[in-house]
Specification:
The protein contains eleven helices and 13 strands. By secondary structure, the chain is of the alpha/beta class. The protein has two domains: 126 residues, Rossmann fold, CATH 3.40.50.720; 184 residues, Rossmann fold. It is elongated. The N terminus is likely disordered. It comes from Silvanigrella paludirubra. Belongs to the D-isomer specific 2-hydroxyacid dehydrogenase family.
Length: 342
């Protein structure tokens, strides 16, 4: 399509996203060239050199697109009318938010729709690790048989009367606690200065503990907090040493929350009995530390990967695009966009 003919509102995405239509309500979407060997900045330049980009006002991205200074400057230079960056996802640690704001971009994300799907995966990991599901599956899959039933064969750990410690008691943490309590687990949360006041209307209220007490009582620890400069490598060697012997680690948040060499050491020396990860550092390539770690069950970042959730995520992004479109049409006062990151 020739952009010069169109007089409507255009957005440019790094790829096609579920739930974000390419043509709807006077809004038309385009995607960057599918050239994996090129950087985002290079793709933007290639696109801008081959198209009239005057009507492009929103840029859509996701977690696998690092938008740091170079990339943001490329958007500013080659897509001069873009003032909105829409993120397909909740986490935005891949975007230099402060620099984006300095360049005049309003950044939005897609919160509030990943909760149930991510909590499902967290509890799936919990069950798979404690009941040694991966080991059992691999034995039958690889050999088409197993040694036979025995009283001590592939013994796992029961969940009843165990304690699940939640790091990050937000919406996903609460949804996980609801599932855990139904399975007979006691739940506690790590106390933090960032916690909002206790939600008196919540049906899942749990005790908040100091870090030392939290590590003493938790049989399973689930990371459900955002990645920030303060939380990077939060689960390090020092903290792992405080965790009770035989505990299990679950992470569905961000890989960089964990110091992976320290986690691998704790698994290999049997200080921890297992770990279930849906995220890891330097995705999609697994580190050598995790490759050689014992008793670890790893998924390829599918926490939000349901048809319904991904459509809803796209819907959030498209809501922000539509609001921006209405501003351009003077049907909405310019200001804070839906789901804009403060």
């Amino acid at each position: 399509m020739n952009l010069t003919v169109e007089k409507t509102f255009h957005y440019l995405g790094t790829r096609i996203f579920p739930g974000i239509p390419l043509t709807k309500d006077g809004i038309i979407g385009f995607t960057l060239p599918d050239t994996p060997e090129k950087t985002i900045a290079q793709k933007i330049q290639i696109f801008a050199n081959s198209q009239n980009v005057d009507n492009i006002y929103s840029f859509i991205t996701c977690i696998i697109d690092n938008l740091e200074k170079k990339e943001l400057e490329a958007i500013k230079e080659y897509l001069p009318n873009v003032t909105h960056i829409g993120n397909f996802g909740v986490g935005f640690n891949h975007i230099d938010i402060d620099y984006a704001k300095n360049l005049g971009f309003r950044v939005t994300n897609s919160p509030g729709v990943l909760t149930e799907a991510t909590a499902d995966i967290a509890f799936t990991l919990l069950l798979c690790v404690t009941r040694r599901v991966a080991e059992g599956y691999s034995i039958v899959k690889n050999t088409s048989k197993y040694p036979g039933w025995a009283p001590d064969y592939l013994l796992g750990t029961s969940l009843q009367n165990k304690t699940l410690g939640i790091v990050g008691y937000g919406e996903i943490g609460k949804a996980l606690a609801k599932r855990a309590k139904a399975f007979g687990l006691k739940c506690v949360a790590l106390k933090s200065n960032n916690w909002d006041s206790i939600d008196k209307n919540s049906s899942i209220e749990i005790e908040r503990l100091s870090e030392n007490d939290f590590f003493k009582v938790s049989d399973i620890i689930s990371l459900n907090c955002p990645l920030t400069e303060q939380s990077k490598n939060w689960l390090n060697q020092e903290r792992i040493s405080k965790i009770k012997q035989g505990a299990v680690i679950i992470n569905t948040a961000r890989g960089e929350l964990i110091d992976e060499p320290s986690l691998a050491d704790a698994l290999n020396n049997n200080h921890l009995s297992g770990a279930g990860l849906d995220v890891f550092c330097h995705e999609p390539v697994l580190s050598e530390h995790l490759k050689t770690a014992k008793n670890i069950f790893i998924l390829p970042h599918i926490g939000s990967a349901t048809h319904e959730t991904r459509q809803a995520m796209g819907g959030r992004v498209f809501d922000s695009i539509k609001a921006h479109f209405k501003e351009r049409q003077e049907l909405r006062q310019k200001g804070v966009l839906p789901f804009q990151i403060k």
